[in-house]
Amino acid sequence: MPATDYQGSSAAASFGRSILSLRREQVHSMDSPTQNHHFASANERELELEAFQKQVADRFSDLSSAGSDDLLSLSWIRKLLNCFLDCQEDFRVLLLKNRSLVIKSPLDRLIQDFFERSVKALDLCNAIRDGIEQIREWKKLIEIVLCALGDNNQRMIGEGQFRRAKKALVDLSISMLDERESTAAAIAHRNRSFGRQNASSKDQHHNHRSLGHFRSLSWSVSRSWSAARQLQAIGNNLVAPKGNEIVATNGIAVAVYTMNSILLFVMWTMVAAIPCQDRGLQVHFSIPRHFMWASAIQSLHERVFDESRKRDRRNACGLLREIYLMDKCTKFLAELADSVQFPLTEDKEAEVRLRVRELGQVCDVMKEGLDPLERQVREVFHRIVHSRTEGLDSLGRVNQND
């Protein structure tokens, strides 16, 4: 979605002048030591706020420089989470340094609002971790295919190996069905996810018996929970601060808005990439152009959204690049398994082995990247909890002292 210019006051239109230059005008003629100390503190805060904005811009500019082959890959997603953790830590330090301002209106309300949005992200972290577990289940089925067709010491790939691989490919295809494709597919997928089987149908029992061991992949959220609605709740009423709010908070309102926007974008991107319950990307996302980090985040948002609209990815259960490559390789092998005649010709067998090698490379990337990704998601969860607890405790102590 395109960025829109913010039609607020002139103070909000340019952060560089808004609070900071106004503060200089207010204290320029102050001569007492106390007043000079206040002026120095204001200058220090100005530098810290500008540094925070620049760090955010630099980090997301680095992420936006990724090529099409790297965007939404496991390695890129891990960089995104590292970026969030770094921004979150910088923001936490910024609030601690300005603790005396945090308790004052309207900043106290803005901070409380940020904490509430952060809490909504916790369920998303849980759902994303469930999605990572689901990818692991897909990887197990891929390993069966690789085991059946990947024996390079065998002179020829036989019909038995193809039957074994085909069964795993069918199970994988069923498991990867997106719930939006059809009502029937959604019911079958949901029943299988929660371990229920229809004993009245022997055919259904036969088709899904190998998937009966799957645990509920949405155990940490209720069945009615929706990732799309949770994202909408985080982005609800998220608007850039007005000029009077910037002045009243000594510019910190801009940092709060920045972190709110980062939180929304990172959670939105994770939901786009990783399979999770009731995915949906139609979230209002508009950042005023004058923020120095706006163009990088807006560019990434548009690129991710464009990926979701591609014909071969519209019904994908996740935009993670490794899921796309896995789906591409397995579909080819499944089509080949349906049409192949034995014995295989040399050309056909070479083609099969090439696709198997490609699938093996994807499997290796997932094997190396899923565990670190899950640890990062867990770290995001705990960092949000810790920062919120620390912030609320700090507010409580200051209020008690007053």
UniProtKB/TrEMBL annotation:
Belongs to the ROH1 family. The keyword Nucleotidyltransferase does not apply. PANTHER family: BPS1-LIKE PROTEIN. The lineage of its organism: Eukaryota, Viridiplantae, Streptophyta, Embryophyta, Tracheophyta. This is Protein BYPASS-related. It is a single-pass membrane protein. It is found in: Membrane. The keyword Transmembrane helix applies. One of its GO terms (cellular component) is membrane. Keywords: Membrane, Transmembrane, Transmembrane helix.
